[in-house]
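Shipment paperwork, digital attachment
Item: protein structure file
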Amino acid sequence: MTTTKPTTAAFDDTVHAHLRLVAEHNADTVRHAADLVLECITADGTVLTAGAGHSLAAVAETFYRAGGLACVRPLYHPELLPLHGAQASTTAERRSGLAAEVLGDKLGEHDVLVVFSTSGVNPYPVELTELARAAGRPVIGVTSGPSSSIAPRRAGATIAERSTVVLDTLVPSGDSTYPQPAPVTAPISTIVNAFLWNELLVAVIDKAAEAGIAVPLWRSSNVPGGDDANTGLLAHYTPRIPELR
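Attachment content:
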């Protein structure tokens, strides 16, 4: 029997190869990041997650997600989401001062901040990172070294230069991956952000099991017993994470 290779095979191969490369490149830093998250969980802290533009897709992946951490609080401003205005979202990410407005007093003494930004150069993600570090809190930056290296440094620094730990998505400048050698479509950053976040969760779970630490995880509300399992988590976290209401 002869099988026909799908027309998307070249892109499939690109994604698979890229994820393997990302996993190998970040193996040590994922473990370091997991230590920071586990310290936060052990101290009953909160993991704050942030991004702008399409990096908000990664923030959505971290929050109130079946199998995800219950102690996650998303940082968000409507102007940062392209669905509320595409050009306005670009302007907002480049506006100095918005980070301080969004972060406010949300960062606690046991918290950790995760910032997703492929280019890692705009004022909003950079200033979030700097504010958290100035407050003495660790920052996990999820960004692309290749993209940051040639992007305009609109904030005078990059989140990679300011973060405690950097998870490098290795996303090519411009994000597109197909066709090679002159790609114009098939951006890969959302796929890699989700992959690295889940790599981090796996590392947290494994480290927690070794240490005998319980990790607060959401259950799907669409499986038997899911709502009941989440009731205690909602009661515990909603007072400090109002986005859970």
